[in-house]
Amino acid sequence: MQVKFKGLNLGDDTGIYFIQGIDGWEDRPDIVNGSAPRSRRNGSMIGGLLASKRVITMDVDIASDPDHGHTTTVPKRELRKAMVIDDVEHELFVDLGYGIEPEIAFVRVTNFDMPTTPGNVQLAHATIEFAATDPRRYSPSLHTTSSGLQTRAPAVAYPVTYPAQYSTALTNPGEAQAINAGTDPSSPLFTINGPVSQPSITLVDGEGVRTTRFNLNVGLGEALSVDTNEGSVKLNSTPLNGADRGALIEELTLRPGLTTVRFRGSGNSNASLVTQWRDATM
Questions:
Q1: What is the pTM for the complete model shown?
Q2: Which of 113, 138, 163 is the C-terminal boundary of a domain?
Q3: Hey, CA dihedral for 70, 21, 32, 89, is it positive or negative?
Q4: 147 and 133, same structural domain?
Q5: From the CA atom positions of the chain, what is the Rg in Å?
Q6: Is there a single domain that holds both residue 264 and residue 194?
Q7: What share of the chain is helix, strand, coil (3-state, %, to 5)?
Q8: How is 72-130 classified by DSSP, letter by letter?
Q9: pLDDT grade for 66, boundaries at 50, 70 and 90
């Protein structure tokens, strides 16, 4: 088992940090039931089932460091530095081995315990608790796909000599394919590069069609970023609200499997939509 966090490597191959166990990594987090009691008869109005935060607990044995006097002093100091409690989530990389694909989560340290054993400088133990506000586990690789606006072949110029061949072929379909190889919906980051006015993003998958339109213009050299995980929309670095923001962007998730991402609007060949996502597993 190998773990990486804030630049520190933990695992048997370090010869220093030996992971004895990690709990909560593959468990399903607690579920919040959104059902509400009916007011006039038995039972409840069915509500959504949503996972709460993921809590991960890791036990680590710390061996003496031959490069620093055969004691645990330096390894313990490095571990403490990496496990500082702060307000920012960091990437936790976990490779369980045995042919299981490595995954990452975005976590904060919420507890750190390192008991002191008087007189023992060659072996120590630490228990670390992480919490991920987003309970999903992700592929380490970030996938990217892009498309331009939909364009058609040039129209037939008049006058024409018959028989004439009319073409409706698309020179650019204005769409791209995205595959989420995980088991749960993934929240992508969309970037719309101008120039384009009234842009829209449409997702088509086996469960239906979802579209969000933005009531604005994105100029040449400008970018509209749509973070469906954070629920934020920014034109360059300026957050947008109201009608300009677009509706229900949090629902623009990539469900497991294949999704077609369509880009529409009024613009030219310089406009593009870039989609970035990770495979997601609960």
A1: 0.85
A2: 138
A3: positive
A4: no
A5: 26
A6: yes
A7: 10, 50, 40
A8: SHHHHHHHHHHT---SS-EEEEEE--TTPPPEEEEEEEEEEE----TT--SEEEEEEEE
A9: confident
